[in-house]
Amino acid sequence: MERKVKILSFERIDNEAKLLESAIELGKLKFELKRVSNWNDYIHELMTNTYDCIVCGGCDLKDYEITSTLKSAKEISPYSTFIYLSSSEKDEISRDITQRYKSLNSIRRDNLVDINSKIIESMHISDESNKISNYWG
Q: Which of 6, 81, 100, 131 could form a disulfide with 122, with the two C-beta atoms 3.0–4.6 Å apart?
């Protein structure tokens, strides 16, 4: 039996959250999606639950918020896949962050159809990292 992928979505804008959920539903991925829309709820979810994938919608986030969101996810939940949804206005920021954090996956908002393949691809990488960590534990 195929397990559900647990996804945490940090998205402040309701319409953008709905677009993300619709894009994931289009794929054949079984998933459980939890959406948070503020920083405190985001940190609380990271501290209290385990997620396979964390998706951050950055259209209305300031540059330092994007970096803080990623850093927090990597510190609290190091084996989760992190996907940043970039927009055309923030392409330069996205490139800079992607270069600094090699584990960051970035997808343009106008190309959300790629989200399922990106989640699946990164889940395999995350599973392998987790196996290695457990081995060396």
A: 81
CA distance 127 to 84: 20
| Residue in 32, 26, 28, 25 with CA at minimum distance from that of residue 4 | 32
Residue pair 86/94 in contact (Cβ under 8 Å)? The answer is yes
d(C-alpha 24, C-alpha 19), whole Å: 9
In angstroms, the CA 106 to CA 129 distance is 19
Q: What is the pLDDT of residues 56-72, one digit of tens each?
A: 886 666 666 777 877 88
Tokens read off for 24 = 């994931």
